[in-house]
Amino acid sequence: MERKYYAGIDVGGTKISGALATAEGKIISRVKSPTPKNASPNNIINIIADLLEELLYAADLKKKNLGGVGIGIPGIIDTSKGKVLRTPNMLLSGTNLQRKLEIKLNVRCALGNDVNVGMLGEKWLGAIKKTRNAVGLFIGTGVGAGIIINDTLVTGNHGAAAELGHMIIQEDGAQCSCGNKGCLEALVGRWAIERDIRKAIQKGKKTIITKILDKKNSPIKSKILREAIKKQDALTMAILTKAANNLGVACISIRHIFDPKMIVLGGGVMEACGDFILPIVKKTVQKDKFFSDIGRCEIVASKLGDDAIVLGAIYLIKNQL
User: Fold this and answer.
1) In terms of domains, do 222 and 292 share one?
2) Which residues lie closer than 8 Å to 219 by C-beta, 6 or more apart?
3) Helices 190-202 and 268-285, axial angle in degrees (round to 10)
4) b/e per residue 143-170 (b: at least 16 CB within 10 A)
5) 76 phi and psi angles, rounded to 5 deg
6) Which helix or strand (DSSP H or E) is residue 54 part of?
7) For the chain, what is the total number of helices (H) and then of strands (E)?
């Protein structure tokens, strides 16, 4: 019997990443592409198709070697139908992406919320491999979350149970992409951090970021934030400190609700700036008086990093098949 390989695709607000791996999760090729601004569902489908071709070519494999494709999407997913119900930061709402991809690619596909899928990756091969109760917060363009209780992914009645990025932290806070105000995402997501930096620049605050950017209006990506921190940029450090404190406050609430053994922090912002953010989050959580006499909840960085979602997507399609 011919050996089968599996592809995992992570559809993000700024980039689409892909990996091809063995059934055991050993990655043999990787690709990525920028996510076009205001991309239509067909744009996204065509990019995924192109990435899949590149993955197979790089591994010297053919389509017949492919067992299936798993895809992680930011937003609320009806996993039974493979339909995207809501994507606040992308134009995929209402699209039956699974069916469209299966027609385009002529291969079995599985669709899931990106952070739910990322948590499956961490459970399979990462930080929570030996943990039965864990919550994940992935800080990228926005903030996604995943919840595993007693070894089971919590998805809820509409597949929307883990939208912790849209829990309201400040009732009169900043406007969020979801339409509400003061959501966690509107305080700590990369787009929110960029918003705060740009507002400060407009007010005349000095920052090295203006020198690092290729063009004045280029996105302030996570790697630029990392570079600014390395250079001890006061404005970037102040804004990230505020974001990290808000993230810590959210972790206290998450602990009170779910009592997890671990809270895993992942995503592009954590991957780039985790060394700066993680100690601040831990310090904030330690101030929690209510759970001070209860056993520890570990706050840890994602072990798989950028690979969490692609590997989780591979685990998802393998299990469905």
Assistant:
1) yes
2) 14, 194
3) 90
4) bbbbbbeeeebebeeebbbbbbbbbebe
5) -95, 125
6) helix 41-58
7) 10, 12
Q: What gap in Å lies between CA 8 and CA 308, rounded to an integer?
A: 10
**Which domain, by its residues, includes 40?**
5-120+307-320
In a shared domain, residues 254 and 150: yes
- What would you report as the CA-atom Rg of the chain, rounded to the nearest whole angstrom? 19
Query: What SS3 class is residue 302?
Result: coil
Looking at residues 189-218, what average pLDDT do you find?
A: 93
Q: Are 304 and 123 in contact (CB under 8 A)?
A: no
Q: Which two tokens stand for residue 131?
A: 């943990």
Q: Which pTM was predicted?
A: 0.89
Query: What is the C-alpha to C-alpha distance for residues 184 and 223, in angstroms, rounded to an integer?
Result: 21
Asked if 154 contacts 162 with a C-beta cutoff of 8 angstroms, the reply is: yes
Q: Under DSSP, is residue 262 helix (H, G, I), strand (E, B) or coil?
A: strand
In a shared domain, residues 159 and 262? yes
CATH number, residue 213: 3.30.420.40
Nearest to 224 by CA among 200, 202, 197, 245: 197
Contacts with 17 (C-beta within 8 Å, 6 or more apart), sequence order? 9, 10, 30, 31, 32, 306, 309, 310
- pLDDT, tens digit, for every residue of 145-201? 999 999 999 988 887 888 899 999 998 999 998 899 999 999 999 999 999 999 999
Instruction: Write out the two tokens for 75.
Output: 């937003």
Mark out the alpha helices in 209-296 (DSSP H runs): 209-212, 222-230, 234-258, 268-285
Burial class (CB in 10 A: 0-12, 13-18, 19+), 193: buried
